[in-house]
Amino acid sequence: xxxxxxxxxxxxxxxxxxxxxxxxxxxxxxxxxxxxxxxxxxxxxxxxxxxxxxxxxxxxxxxxxxxxxxxxxxxxxxxxxxxxxxxxxxxxxxxxxxxxxxxxxxxxxxxxxxxxxxxxxxxxxxxxxxxxxxxxxxxxxxxxxxxxxxxxxxxxxxxxxxxxxxxxxxxxxxxxxxxxxxxxxxxxxxxxxxxxxxxxxxxxxxxxxxxxxxxxxxxxxxxxxxxxxxxxxxxxxxxxxxxxxxxxxxxxxxxxxxxxxxxxxxxxxxxxxxxxxxxxxxxxxxxxxxxxxxxxx
Length: 297
Known about the structure:
Blueprint: H1 2-32, H2 36-87, H3 92-116, E1 121-125, E2 130-139, E3 142-152, E4 158-162, H4 170-176, H5 183-210, E5 215-219, E6 225-232, E7 237-244, E8 255-259, H6 269-280, H7 283-292
Antiparallel strand pairs: 1-2, 2-3, 3-4, 5-6, 6-7, 7-8
Helix pairs in contact: 6-7
């Protein structure tokens, strides 16, 4: 019996030791070969750590840049302050006040004159004995040329120097608008003439740039006459088109005339529509429509 008890005790001890040994092996195995989920989590933590370090470096660089800019601004402000202090004298405050009052009076006079003449730019000339008026031109939202004219105020209103084109009847417009009593009416009329001329000139420019198959046969400096050569695609017939802008305050023609060997073509319904199109639409846009419809090459 005593021998049997010793054998059982040895077996129990061996079993416990074996179990412990097995647990140790499994623990080592887990350290050496971690679970897939553990490996994935480790990668995520490493990636997050790298991203945070990158963000930290960027913030450091931005902070350093802001510090450098702040130092530069402080240095420039200090230099500007020193220069202003050097330029100041004992009467500087009184001088600045007088300049401010003069500027205020000048601005008030300009605003009053600006209102009286309908919003045109104006500046005083020759110590208030005259004014210089600027008239801007534009077409389809694009600002073009600006024209200036100097008007003497005393003893009566009189047009002096100017850069208005010579084919614009400036003196005639001044007489018809009664410039002496209605300056705004004169400037409005002049503005319509100049803007219409600028619009016609711009249309002619677009025709030359956009319609290579259309030949410009004739035009004048006022762009009040425009002669174009078309080609009808089917018969290869040449059509001479004359646009007459008798109303010099408009960008559209008052008369359109077609000439070609086919005497019946100008009176055809198709070309009557083309005539109406040219009279109601800017010429460069009308030509684009005519080309899309297959009326010209």
